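ingest -> validate -> predict -> emit
validate: passed (alphabet ok, no gaps, 350 aa)
predict: started
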Amino acid sequence: MDTGPGDMSDHTFPLIEVEGSAYEMGYQHGAQAAGLVQRYLLWIERLTGESRDVLCRNAMDFWPLIQALSPAFAEEVKGLAAGAGISLEEAVLCQARAEAAQKPVGACTAFALTRTATADGKTLAGQNQDLEAEYADVAILLRVKPDDGRPRALMFTFAGQLGYAGMNGHGVAHFANALYGFTWRLGLPHYPLKRLILEQRTAEDCVALLARNRTCSAANVLLCDGQGRIGSVEVRPEGIARLRDTHPDACLHTNHYLAPAFAGHESGFLPDSCPRLDRIRVLVRENWGAITVDTIKRILADHDNDPGGICRHGAVGMHSISGYIAEPEKLLLHVRRGHGCLGAWTAYEV
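emit:
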């Protein structure tokens, strides 16, 4: 597989498709992606500088919370371990990577636009995923088809990680930006919650899910659903804050707090976050009422403020390894591998 961001433009991410019971889906995932799961675990060690024993021990602190959140998710983790030939502790580590090492990551730019903002009045939502380049080597697309009444879903994630950005069969989609300036606490990892968002029917259901569960770190979550509703929520260990953007048909966010209730926590950790938000606001305003999927592709390729632009090229070690554009009314998810300016886009039916 590719080893750097410059080699990604001619490739798509591996597609893993699973169906059946929670355990069966986990087993199929593990069996199909066993080699990549092992590479993901090795990458977590390298990224964090911690031994796997320490990381696994830390990850298991979160296992009771994960089991209480969703028995079905816990069963899928168990199936993953069996299918990939790894220990339960290693499978849990895949669901609590950042939390086990207490290392937040990401410098993403996310958007949700609807009604008067777009050319056809339909919703468009997504983001550039900005991470260390090596994440691309262990990334997959995961399509799940549960047999227990939960909706089918398609997500971008990493081999062995059961929840990340994506969209479900109701048109519910979510994307996220890392936030900083918090103290780690024992709480839910974000990745299981990301998967449970993809089991909801509406954006409001997702907000309610976030409101009743405490996380151990901070993030912004952008939401949309198949009925044209969009939303933005900042999540911290002590609670959540809903956001209202400058126009009700747009939600834009990068990596600094926008909610007045959380403004005092802003540390300025990523100095390019404010310029990126300003830049995407300008580009959205310039194209207001005529925004299409192709418009968004151009916006996500924008280089203003290089190397920390919307299309990120290595500022603080992060690259735009992928991008997503959800069309929830059409149940289409466009996924790009590589930089916004170089990568190849592929459309997938959810």
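The longest strand covers residues 319-327.
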